[in-house]
Amino acid sequence: MTESHSRVAIVTGAGRGIGAAVARKLAADGFAVGLLDLDETGVTKGAEAIVAEGGKAIGVGLDVSKTDQVESAVAKVAEKLGPPTVLVNNAGITRDNLIFKMTDEDWDSVLSVHLRGSFLMTRAVQQHMTAQKWGRIVNLSSTSALGNRGQVNYSAAKAGMQGFTKTLAIELGRFGVTANAIAPGFIETDMTAATAERLGVPFEDFKKAAAAQIPVNRVGKPEDIANTVSFLVSEGAGFVSGQVIYVAGGPKD
Ligand code: NAP
Question: Catalytic: which of 31, 107, 134, 154?
């Protein structure tokens, strides 16, 4: 099929973990990729590695919760790589605590990165998608959206991502833009390593205990999420929109 739209993707939080794997996979799928992250050095190296393998990529430092930084990062990607038609809202943080110990800052920072960040990024990118009459938005939710002890802030943000996604699907569908959410279960990254550390459990033991509860009997890898993103942004996924796909090695409610 000949495509009339540009093949340019933006991945936030692409400095490491799931975002880095998604950026590599989309580059392998033939997208030029803008890797965005707080850590400019990390994404610059990630982009250089993609270019060394024959792909097209740039790294841009930003805080996704800051309007001016989001707008200038999206403009930079559009200028250097072309108008973005794929957006993966992946940047995320955790500030876990039981509600009686959770601070205002724990609450505000988590809601700000996940929800405000995804809103700002999507508002800035959708104009390129609607102009091209084609787009794919993938938002990172989590199984924690269903409730998770110590994560009242994070679970609220990740449940919010699901409502945000469904509304984007309704508003943008007429412009050829789909929006879907991926809700990962346990994925082996720095984020889950930090949770193990907070609980005082060696990461290997933490992973083993998690795997024992997962029907496929293993924890997830960043590539498990990258492969699902690859499908959702493909031409063939054009009739899949407003969905939440649990990628957790088994069913979730
Ligand atoms: P990670 O290893 O902690 O990576 C998160 C990335 O986001 C880091 O590179 C971080 O930058 C970046 N980031 C944080 N705040 C940012 C901001 N304000 N602006 C720009 N970039 C920012 O996390 P991960 O495990 O790969 O998780 C990726 C996404 O999947 C998150 O949305 C997470 O909630 C979701 N998720 C993960 C799991 C899991 O089991 N790992 C499960 C469900 C959902 P720095 O390196 O500079 O801090």
Answer: 154
